[in-house]
Backbone:
């Protein structure tokens, strides 16, 4: 690149004159280039080089549009240099160029001919003037009317104020926010602080809607060719209220967690001394330390009953604290819920007879198998039956169990005192009690129904109550009747999520009875299914960690191993293979039964639930 400007004419200039011209051209703030008639770059000045680093004075043919090598035939038709070369006159054009700093830069280009004594064009001088600011002002003038219309019709709150804070323009929605008539703010002082490049929160006293909260954001603009600010007023009243509610809920949650932790700690500390007291009193009552009189035995029996009541209270407190802390882990297994409910209900026969209540039970004739934690569902049923008997003085208790559209439904009805309509929304709330009467008798803690609701919902079920004072109550709950595949997929999904969050491995093993169909033909469906049950029991027996789970499918049993590498899962297969072979040799399994095993691990084989299950053939 030449950093000097030189030009050759038929008449040689004196060295002094050339030096003056060179100094002048090199230091002006306009870009100057000298092009040949073929649009070859002959020379450029310093300013031109700064604006267009690609241009070099090496006789490369260029286009003024981007100053990149370009054939002369591609020169734009509106090129001022091209026009000058055609007619020998001076021409101008305003052209936008990509800026090195990003964006667009506008230049006003003036092309003038350099002629010899024969009036022939020997070169063209191009002068580039930075036209960006002028162009910006021109464009602003063209767009000002459009800006007014855009602000006026915008659904956001906009207003324009001058440098003194006087409102020049508003849109209707802004007038409404400030409680003003349309256009009523114009000409008044805005009166709120306008920070530069920062958000400012303000309170707006609206006589119609009360106090509103808003955030202000400003942008410097020109309005009617004078400095002004465009102000965006964002109504954050609802957001602020929502944040306040969220903070209050967070604080309430924190307090609840403290209470739950306190209850859990105290309950644990009470369990041991209560157990010791109960055992000691039982030994005295049994005569291990000498004979006792009838009045003494009566008092000791009463003491044991009250210790038992206190133990139940402590158990409830521990249960609710564990549930709320997310520390309850369901032990899901396929259970005959009909058999379970018959067993539980039989234990309440004596209580009903003692109060003179009829106890009606309606169960399906066939068993209903469902995936549940049977201890937790038993706890729910015990709570509902206990409450029904406790608050019913005459009439009957009715227990119903049945299937309905993919769910198992249970209802416990009574003819007791009932619950007032205004109390029904609070029935499943902690420490709430209804229908209490003065006098002796077990009053409870108001936790049983709260625990029941949580346990049903942990099973993805639903519980509700219908009641009328003086006519009794009807508590109902439903549990989804999931298939084996549903349970397997759900628990693989849970295990995989935990592995992803904790960045730990996760493996699953499928033990499949390969010739399941052949065994059904040979042994029958019932005996073949019993083989699958025995396989499930063997695998459960061989598990060594509480977090490992086993689920029986249609013709396979799935073992889930959290935080276990695939290589370690292979060792689990080998250990179970030994137990399976032993069961075959002992005649527990039919000798023709073929069991194959497949293992898949995260992250080696797949990182999705579908991928892992596909890898084990499901």
Residues:
């Amino acid at each position: 690149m030449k950093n000097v400007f030189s030009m050759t004419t038929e008449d040689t200039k004196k060295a002094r004159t050339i030096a003056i011209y060179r100094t002048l051209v090199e230091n002006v703030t306009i870009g100057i280039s000298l092009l040949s008639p073929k649009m070859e770059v002959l020379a450029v000045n310093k300013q031109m080089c700064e604006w267009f680093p690609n241009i070099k004075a090496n006789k490369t043919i260029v286009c003024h549009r981007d100053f990149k090598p370009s054939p002369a035939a591609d020169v734009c038709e509106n090129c001022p240099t091209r026009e000058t070369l055609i007619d020998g006159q001076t021409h101008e054009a305003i052209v936008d160029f990509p800026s090195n700093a990003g964006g667009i830069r506008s230049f006003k280009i003036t092309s003038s001919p350099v002629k010899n004594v024969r009036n022939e064009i020997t070169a063209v001088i191009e002068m580039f003037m930075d036209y960006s600011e002028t162009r910006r002002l021109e464009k602003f003038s063209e767009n000002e009317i459009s800006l007014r219309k855009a602000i006026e019709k915008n659904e956001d709150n906009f207003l324009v104020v001058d440098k003194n804070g006087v409102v020049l323009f508003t849109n209707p929605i802004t007038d409404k926010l400030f409680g003003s008539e349309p256009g009523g703010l114009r000409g008044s002082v805005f009166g709120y602080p306008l920070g530069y490049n920062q958000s400012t929160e303000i309170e707006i006293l609206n006589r119609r809607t009360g106090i509103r909260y808003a955030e202000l954001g400003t942008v410097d603009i020109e309005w009617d060719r004078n400095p002004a600010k465009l102000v965006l007023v964002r109504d954050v009243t609802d957001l602020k209220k929502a944040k306040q509610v969220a903070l209050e809920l967070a604080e309430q949650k924190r307090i609840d967690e403290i209470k739950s932790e306190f209850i859990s700690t105290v309950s644990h500390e009470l369990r041991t001394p209560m157990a010791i007291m109960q055992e000691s009193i039982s030994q005295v009552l049994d005569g291990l330390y000498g004979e006792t009189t009838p009045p003494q035995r009566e008092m000791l029996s009463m003491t044991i009953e009250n210790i038992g009541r206190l133990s139940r209270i402590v158990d409830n407190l521990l249960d609710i604290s564990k549930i709320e802390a997310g520390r309850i882990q369901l032990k899901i297994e396929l259970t005959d819920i009909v058999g379970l409910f018959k067993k539980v209900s039989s234990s309440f026969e004596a209580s009903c007879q003692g109060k003179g209540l009829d106890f009606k039970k309606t169960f399906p004739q066939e068993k209903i198998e469902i995936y549940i934690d049977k201890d937790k569902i038993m706890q729910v049923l015990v709570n509902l039956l206990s409450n029904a008997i406790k608050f019913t003085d005459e009439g009957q208790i009715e227990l119903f169990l049945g299937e309905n559209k993919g769910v198992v439904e249970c209802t416990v009805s009574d003819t007791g005192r009932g619950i007032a309509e205004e109390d029904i929304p609070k029935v499943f709330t902690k420490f709430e009690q209804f229908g209490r009467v003065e006098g002796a008798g077990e009053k409870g803690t108001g936790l049983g129904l709260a625990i029941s609701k949580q346990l049903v919902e942990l099973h993805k079920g639903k519980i509700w109550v219908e009641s009328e004072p003086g006519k009794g109550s009807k508590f109902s709950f439903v549990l989804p009747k999931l298939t084996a595949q549903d349970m397997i997929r759900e628990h693989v999904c849970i295990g995989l999520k935990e592995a992803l969050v904790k960045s730990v491995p996760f493996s699953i093993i499928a033990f499949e009875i390969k010739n399941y169909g052949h065994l059904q033909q040979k042994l029958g469906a019932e005996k073949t299914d019993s083989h699958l049950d025995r396989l499930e029991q063997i695998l459960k027996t061989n598990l060594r960690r509480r977090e490992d789970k086993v689920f029986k499918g249609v013709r396979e049993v799935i073992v889930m191993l959290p935080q276990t590498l695939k290589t370690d899962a292979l060792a689990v297969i080998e250990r179970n293979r030994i137990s399976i072979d032993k069961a075959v040799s002992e005649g527990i399994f039919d000798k023709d039964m073929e069991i194959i095993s497949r293992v898949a691990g995260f992250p080696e084989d797949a990182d999705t639930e579908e991928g892992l299950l596909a890898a084990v053939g499901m």
